[in-house]
Amino acid sequence: MAVILYSPASPYSAKVRMAAQWCGIDAEARVVDTAGQPAELITTNPLGKIPVLIGDDGEAVFDSRAITQHLNRLSGGALYPRKADKRLQAERLEALADGICDCLLAHVYERRGRPAEIVHQPWLDKQWSKAVRALDHLEGNLPKLTKKADGGQIALRAALGYLALRFEGQWERGRPKLKRWAKRFDEKFPALVPLLPHA
Ligand SMILES: N[C@@H](CCC(=O)N[C@@H](CS)C(=O)NCC(=O)O)C(=O)O
Fold first, then answer.
1. Pairing of the two strands 52-54 and 60-61
2. Which of 13, 87, 154, 193 gives 20 to 30 Å between its CA and that of 161?
3. Tens-of-pLDDT digits for all 199 residues of the chain?
4. How far apart are CA 86 and CA 142, in angstroms?
5. Which residues contact 181 (CB under 8 A, 6 or more apart)?
6. 154 near 15, Cβ under 8 Å?
7. Which residue of 50, 107, 198 sits with most ligand 1 atoms within 8 Å of its CB, as the best mutation to test the pocket?
8. Sheet hosting strand 27-31, strand order edge to edge
9. Whose CA is nearest to atom 12 of ligand 1?
């Protein structure tokens, strides 16, 4: 059986686990502690980052967008629309959602990884301002929730899950549509909810 190396709080991991579930692809989800850079992680992804998908044949796939494309191929196209314009929309939404996560992670790592006296506030502000701009863009250009989930919608839901986990109370005000969008996603796709980022 395939294996996904992941951590419960990781938004990119949540995205690929949700995507695998959506595609009907069985994979053993195995928690790894990236801080320890265990052999299982660095031998499959020299960057020491999660998620990593290890196939039945032992072949490792990373990063999360390579994994979602791989899952799409394995499932015969369950994750991205076939029509080029719709597919581009889904892939762009996924890039935006992952980009929000990149900024949020940079913010979290700056605070977690540095002694408090050398945390660089302008760097935190810059990362947060990018996330804010992207969230405002989404509030004004809400992605359509289609009957079938796609890689873009799943990535956005995972990113909003990460915001709820690490930035609770800091992003919701002024973005009621985005909040409602997450609720509607959960109602439509309840099987994916347990895979959202959690502590
Ligand atoms: N672009 C990568 C980002 C992966 C990433 O940054 N994962 C974080 C966890 S959410 C990680 O492994 N951090 C540990 C590290 O950078 O050493 C992807 O989409 O998979």
1. antiparallel
2. 87
3. 999 999 999 999 999 999 999 999 999 999 999 999 999 999 999 999 999 999 999 999 999 999 999 999 999 999 999 999 999 999 999 999 999 999 999 999 999 999 999 999 999 999 999 999 999 999 999 999 999 999 999 999 999 999 999 999 999 999 999 999 999 999 999 999 999 999 9
4. 15
5. 142, 143, 145, 156, 160
6. yes
7. 50
8. 27-31, 2-6, 52-54, 60-61
9. 49
